Amino acid sequence: MDDPVDLTPLRAMLEQRDLDGYLIDADGSNSDQRYVSGFTAPDPYQTLVTRDGVHLLVSGLEFGRAQSDSAADSVSRLSAYDYHERRAEHGRYEGMIRTLAAFLADHNVDTIAVPQEFPTGTADGLREQGVTVTAETEGIVQKIRATKTPWEVNQIRATQRANEAAMAAAETLIASADVEDGVLVHDGTPLTSERVTEEIEITLLRHGCGLDETIVACGADAADPHNRGSGELAAGECIVIDIFPQDKETGYAGDMTRTFSRGDPGEEARRRYDVTKEAYEAGLEAVEAGVTGAAVHDAVCDVIEDAGYETLRSDPDTDTGFIHSTGHGVGLDVHEEPRVSPSGGELEPGHVISIEPGIYDPAVGGVRIEDLIVVTEDGYENLTDYRVGLDPTTE
Amino acid sequence: MDDPVDLTPLRAMLEQRDLDGYLIDADGSNSDQRYVSGFTAPDPYQTLVTRDGVHLLVSGLEFGRAQSDSAADSVSRLSAYDYHERRAEHGRYEGMIRTLAAFLADHNVDTIAVPQEFPTGTADGLREQGVTVTAETEGIVQKIRATKTPWEVNQIRATQRANEAAMAAAETLIASADVEDGVLVHDGTPLTSERVTEEIEITLLRHGCGLDETIVACGADAADPHNRGSGELAAGECIVIDIFPQDKETGYAGDMTRTFSRGDPGEEARRRYDVTKEAYEAGLEAVEAGVTGAAVHDAVCDVIEDAGYETLRSDPDTDTGFIHSTGHGVGLDVHEEPRVSPSGGELEPGHVISIEPGIYDPAVGGVRIEDLIVVTEDGYENLTDYRVGLDPTTE
């Protein structure tokens, strides 16, 4: 990471609670650890934040790479604390606990805070070794991560560029398909969600990005915001495409949704598209530093309710209408702080958030429009450069 | 999952320790939870194994899918335990803890075992609510997962078919490249690790598989078993290709390694290839139910040491020679139980393991050959159908 991350709030918490350190024990899938250490590895490793440094404990296999790549002030390997001997004597689990206790003692750390998701086996094992372990349940590192450095914003921007290429590839497939018996047809075979998803994935791969899932959902499928979609794509129905890739090198994510229809989806669907677009514009318009995520969400709900559709604000039990929150933070995780929802707190400059209203009903289909933006002092900068329109084009 | 998984050892542990249940609190990236519940979701959910049932607690968004897709005996949604009210009153963390405590109480569960990696925040929160929580550090679910049902073996076999297609695509690229000034050239540009990796990834995508990483490493890169490789591929050097994809639907992994050289890599490299192949054959030959993973590893080390190369058995500190273990279990995780290493216990029918000896030296390069097999009563069945040979072909 080019800018050092600012762990001041974490160190203030340690000082306030009179604790010696903050310990993470996780593998590379844990974004907090990746963020704090500037390092990632497939197997578990440990990151200790003390009042004046960041210290890594890694296996011998990762030692060289951790020394050259990580942002830590010191890197130790397990063998420096006699892991192999301890494991031979005490077994795999207890050997690792004792090694970790020795690592903590070496850094003069007796009392630690750990993240909510820190392994219970490690916490209880360290307690047996005399270490005081307190779970920190506020998500302090997630809060720090919410505010991006300029370098981080650039990484997210780069992923969103790849995302735009993937969306363009998907839109082109849909726009250039033939329509036969109400179904989209490409190269003589029905165009399916799976085929469009493959096109998206291949495009992202060529841009150095990967993803776990993508949504290409048509008709009633698209009325369920969590449905990935499957099967043939129909003409005259809304197709929701939601792409959230992650750069394979940096780990930073992008996120964007567009809704397309080949042919006329009908007056009601078009009205829903227009209302969703109006709500998306109202959401963007509401964003600036100092405004709460809740207020942005309210601005979006206002538009949708005024148009006569339900929201979870007007009816917490509704299955149709706007049935999710307006947005979420995006960074090393696709979903992270802050929230743009009824519980969303004050937005700050450097928050990267999605704005993604939608209107859903199995009888009509689904519509969603989503951009990724960064909050600024007096508004926002849109990190997404992609046309908003229901009719797909090949441009 | 077609066959129900056999949780008998887990329930025996509960009975023996006089505990009411085993609780997992994780998201879909946790393979233990996926295995026990037959369900996966991007966000956290909870799986409770009692003496007579498996019970899921999921968000409203996942409720329908959990009911239709999961293998659980009951599925509850958070709102059934007043999550939203509790969260409004006590905040996000404490609200969730109280909801979970109510879910446990509803199933008459006061005392639980949890996995080593269970969140400390959840464990300590439940303890505050009067639940007795003990971390189970033996990895009991991992042990159960080591033995595959016939259905699971078929899923792994299917992923390995995709893997073979990807390996063939990579081999074809290397075999059909031109050689100019000692470098492989494809379509007029130097053939790189990155280009071959892309070909592998695209082939896997077309077969419904994804992967986090792939190794296409040439020359000195290939002498570091964890180096993914980068840059131009040279003629007359060993290129190690290690592919470990996962099926996107089932989650089951495959794993295979082949080593190729365009042109003569020299006598020493060819000798290392032959010794590695002999060691791989000796490893396969040693496998049968009742034999330990340690004994299989020893059979492999015997061949390599007899040929005059170091192993971690002959020199624990060696940086060259055979510097990793012989293999590992493969299933919902690419690396899981059992181990085919010095600490490997008895192999059982249904264990799916890799056999992957290699010989490494930065001065000569790296060689590795790996198949995936399933242990049977009197030997093994090879789940891999791919020629072993140093010279790449386009067949």
Automatic annotation (TrEMBL), chains A, B:
The keyword Hydrolase applies. Keywords: Hydrolase, Metal-binding. It comes from the Archaea. PROSITE patterns: PROLINE_PEPTIDASE. Pfam families: Creatinase_N, Peptidase_M24. Residues 155-377 form the Peptidase M24 domain. GO terms for molecular function: hydrolase activity; metal ion binding. Transmembrane segments: none annotated. The keyword Metal-binding applies. Residues 10-146 form the Creatinase N-terminal domain. Belongs to the peptidase M24B family. This is Peptidase M24. It comes from Natrialba aegyptia DSM 13077.
